[in-house]
Amino acid sequence: MASSGKSSAASELSRRIRQVTFSPTVAMAQRAAALRARGERVLDFSVGEPDQPTPRHVAAAAAAALEAGQTRYTGSAGLPELREAVAHRYREDFGLECGPEQVVVTDGGKHALYCVCQCLLDAGDQVLIPSPSWPTFAESVRLAGGKPVTLRTDDREGFRVTARQVSRALGPRTRALLLNTPSNPTGAVVDAEELLALGRLARRKKLTLLYDDTYAKLLLDGGPPAPVGELRRLLGDRLVVIGTASKSYCMTGWRIGWVVAGQGLASACATLISHSTQCPTSFAQVGAIAALTGSQQSVKRLEAEYRRRLRRIYPLLTSIPGVTCVRPGGGFYLFPSLAGHLGHRAPTTLALAMRLLDEEKVAVVPGEGFSAPGYVRISFARPVDELNEGIGRLAGFLARLSERQ
Predict the structure, then answer these.
(1) Three-class SS of residue 161?
(2) pLDDT-based confidence at 1, cuts 50/70/90?
(3) Are the CB atoms for 284 and 62 separated by under 8 Å?
(4) Distance from the Cα of residue 123 to its chain's centroid
């Protein structure tokens, strides 16, 4: 017999999931997709993925594995050959000495972060997160029962966090510092000297440094790679690298990421995976082996292409009256301030971004999603002609908006 009382399905959900917010980048991408489904032409600069295809030799390796019937479970830590390939890549590119037993393959970078937080944090443990930041950082900490502690960075300082700032934020429950360099959404790169200062601070205070290097191979200023090997020598097992094939190898949909950690944490992540996702897709892992062990020319071409795009569109964006933007040092995002254009018709960048999409069919991600109201994130992982047109539409929209305020 049906109950006559009113009930809410939401009230039956766990407190844990009710505290999690939906990804703002996914939300904006879905809104843009809905407009496209109605036949609208949308210039979508919201999603953080390369527009180039996966390199052919990578796709061919996965296709060959599929044809050969390599479709069964692998070990929960991933194929041994892929774990060795990850270890080899870090030795070659960053001077980080590790063995395959310290590598765990995951279902993408988000899953790597989730596994680490679940295995490392207890209820109430605090994790320092420089902000503006990718929202999944904070949510992964919360899902593990931890408490994210925001460290506000300033565009006047290029959005770069410092060891001094971290030191002032330390408390008795601080367990880890989560560092993303180059940063999503700002493109800020922590320089080598400051990175090592953060490492020395983490060693003194017995903190774990969670180092997300998703965009580490997409440097826009031509600088040297980060001294991750030196960080490892400073911190030992207190350095945990969270990586992914998604951006550098144009493999976002393949869902291949990894954790590089001490053997204890690596084993714990593998145990968690054995009771959750079991293992990443077998033939996708074979493709990742080809990506990591084959020619790295495609990565270099990708990096060069994003430098070219930045040179083209950065002057266009910063020439718009009332728009300021820190030049990114890595990744493929611009994070301009539009605070000067907010008013009664668009009181927040969330409202502004929605109007921009509805009126001009240009999708960007509002800064509220990154704990940075007043800013928007623009992905320039799109063809240059689309970028030129999109910046032009944004300029016209802001001009009209200012006239109406």
Answers:
(1) coil
(2) very low
(3) yes
(4) 25
Take residue 350 and report the two structure tokens written for it: 């969330």
Read off the pLDDT of each residue in 345-366 and give the average, rounded to a whole number: 95
Report, at the CATH architecture level, how domain 15-44+298-404 is classified. Alpha-Beta Complex (3.90)
What average pLDDT does the segment 81-102 reach?
97
Q: What is the pLDDT of residue 9?
A: 59
| Residue 273, token pair as written in the block | 């995976």
- Single-letter code of the amino acid located at 178: L
Phi and psi torsions of 291, nearest 5°: -65, -45
Architecture (CATH level 2) of domain 56-294: 3-Layer(aba) Sandwich (3.40)
What is the Cα–Cα distance from 194 to 158, expressed in whole angstroms? 13
CA distance 53 to 51: 7
Apex CA 32: angle with CA 28 and CA 38, to 5°? 150
How far apart, in whole angstroms, are the C-alpha atoms of residue 43 and residue 382? 9
Tokens of 127: 């994790």
62-89: b (≥16 Cβ within 10 Å) or e: beebbeeeeeeebebbbbeebbbbbbeb
250 burial via Cβ count (<10 Å: 0-12, 13-18, 19+): buried
Boundaries of every domain in the chain: 15-44+298-404, 56-294
> Are 105 and 83 in contact, with CB atoms under 8 Å apart?
yes
**Residue 146 token pair:** 């931890």
